[in-house]
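Reopening this ticket.

The earlier resolution said the output was attached, but the attachment link was broken on my side. Pasting everything inline this time so it's all in one place.
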Amino acid sequence: MNFRGICAVFGKELKAYFASPLGVVFILFYVLVSNGFFFFVADFFREGQASMRGYFETLPWIFLFFVPAIAMRLWAEERKSGTLEVLLTMPLRDAEVVLGKFFAGAAFLAIALVCTLTVPLTVGFFGRPDWGVIAASYAGALLMGAAYLAIGLWASSLTESQVIAFVTSVAVTFVLLAAGVAPTWAGSVGWFATACGYLSLLTHFQNILRGVLDSRDVVYYVSVVLLFLHLNAKSIESRKWK
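Inline output:
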C-alpha cells in the first residue's frame, strides 16, 4: 500500500472541496439547518433540558441528504470531465485512489461536525449535560457518516451524473435506515424484526446515543464502510477492463 499515493489523492480531493466558496457555503448551510431548526427550535428550548439527544436523533435524516451531496462528485466528476482515465493510468492501485477519496470526504464531514461544537458549548452554558454521552454521540455520528460516505462513493463510481449518484446514494442509504423501523411499523416481530434491526444504520446509532460505544456497533459501521469501499474498487476495476 502506497501511503504517499493515498495522501496525494486525499490532498487533491480535500483541496477541491474548498477550491471555490461552495464548500464553505455548504458547511454553513449544514450548520444552520442542523443547529438552527432541528435543535434549538424543535427540541432544546421547547423541552428545557440540557441534553443533545434531540439534536442527534435528527442527524441520521439530515445526513441522508448532506453526506450523499458530499460524495456525489468524487467519481462522477472525474468520469464526466474525462480525467478518470488519466487518474487510472497513474502508478496507483485502485484501492489507494478509493481510500484517498474516502478520507478526503470523511475529513470534510469531520470539519462540518467540528463546526457544530458551538451546540454543546451552548448547552453547557445553560445547564449541565452529560459530556460522556455527547462525546460518544459525536463519535457515533462520525462512524455513521463514514458509512453513508462509503455508500455515496460507490454510487458515484457507477455514473458520470452527479444527480444520479446522489439519488442512488440516498435510495440505498434510506433502505438501510428504514430497515430498523419498517418491521415495527408493519407489526413484524421475532427473528425478522431482529435481523432488520441489526442491518439498520439507524438502530446502531440509536444504541450509541445511550452513551456507550459498543464494539458491535463499531464493527457494524466499519463493515459497511469496508463493504462499499470494496464494491467501489471493483466498480473502478471493471471500468479498466472495459
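Reporter confirms the inline version is readable. The mean pLDDT is 83. The CA atoms of residues 14 and 104 lie 5 Å apart.
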